[in-house]
Amino acid sequence: MNLLASIAHQLDALDNAQLRRKRRVVEAVRGTRLTVEGREMLAFCGNDYLGLAQHPVLAEAAQRGAAQWGVGATASPLVCGHTASHESLELELARFLGLPRALYFYAGFPANVGLLPALVGRGDAVFSDALNHACLIDGARLSRAQIHVFPHADLAALDAQLAACTSPRKLIVTDAVFSMDGDIAPLPEMLRLAERHDALLLIDDAHGFGVLGPGGRGSAAHFDLRSPRLIVMGTLSKAAGAAGAFVAGDARIVEWVMQRARSYIFATAAPAMVTEALRASLRLIEAEEWRRERLRAHAKRLHDALSGDAAIGRLLDSPTPIQPLIIGGNGEALDRMAALWRQGLWVPAIRPPTVPEGTARLRISLSAAHDDADVAQLIEALRAGV
Ligand SMILES: Cc1ncc(COP(=O)(O)O)c(C=O)c1O
Question: Can you give the residue range of the structural domain that contains 327?
Fold first, then answer.
């Protein structure tokens, strides 16, 4: 079988397992309303938790940035792509997070893929939660360190793995808020384990930054964690409403990441229009507490309405805007998504390999841009769709 025939065969297999992914073309965006094939859908599928992605203040900042700096950064930050706007953003991020230094990456996936191999290598050890995001897994693999996967949030298993390890460098890595489950990792206990076993702790706060902690400072601030062993990575593509990511922590570690992360060194910097939008976003994240309050109210309303209603599915006990409704089979999850779609709601079905086999789910993603009537409509549609 030649290569093309074997790829066609693999695509057929995806179809047969109902695992072939399709993109829908979004024709217009108006807050939480997305137009698809001429029809306006109420969306619970994006990660715009604070409702900032369409904010006019961010759009104006991006326009000013484009007028001043153009739309392309032209080179790696280490050549000539690091403008005064990038520099200001990094200083403002570090101040906001209360950490010594922050480094801005053009996206979150490459940040982790570059970060892990910069921190550990052959002969070292990575301890990785079983439900970690794909980019942490890929970063760990690329590092060539030995990988120890511990069952999700299982501190006793992590403790035992660390105790048995004789590698010179140990790195614990975890999503801070799990992207498909919405739960928060037991970070204080993990940091204590890192201290006891002389390890570093890297947290990926893609879904906690902007949402958790005082002023939206994220999961580490939520637990009031401070330690030179703690490395915080966060994405700016979700609650911050734009694009990119940061790595923040001890200044020596961040400097080393800048010297060694190949995805930082050998990639063009993000355009300064994006960093300008992010600087505006940071100010709104800090100032507008009502956005987080509204998110919490939406989550409570959903739980009050759906918990215990087994016919609808099993709503996980998530304290964050990620509210997964476990359905089970792939086909059933797709059918439920289709039933909601017919009612004008866009709630994505998430299937393996993104989530474990048999746990296909509707990933409901709440936003401060939703109003109470939107959440009520979702609850009604879920009830009608079974
Ligand atoms: C936990 C986690 N880390 C990293 C990323 C990658 O971030 P980005 O989309 O900015 O590349 C994502 C999501 O997309 C994520 O959910």
Answer: 22-50+289-384
pTM above 0.90, yes or no: yes
Are 60 and 175 in the same domain?
yes
User: How does pLDDT run across 316-351, given as a tens digit for each residue?
Assistant: 999 999 999 999 999 999 999 999 999 999 999 999
Please answer whether residues 329 and 352 qualify as being in contact, where contact means their C-beta atoms are separated by less than 8 angstroms.
no
Burial of 16 (0-12, 13-18, 19+ CB in 10 A): exposed
- How many domains does the chain contain in total? 2
Please check whether residues 74 and 213 belong to one and the same domain.
Answer: yes
Which atom number of ligand 1 is nearest to the Cα of residue 237? 10
Give the distance (Å) from ligand 1 centre to CA of residue 48: 13
To test ligand 1's pocket by mutation, which of 129, 133, 246 has the most ligand atoms within 8 angstroms of CB?
A: 133
The edge-to-edge listing of strands for the beta sheet with 230-235 is 101-105, 245-249, 230-235, 200-204, 170-175, 125-129, 146-150
pLDDT in tens, 22-35: 899 999 999 999 99
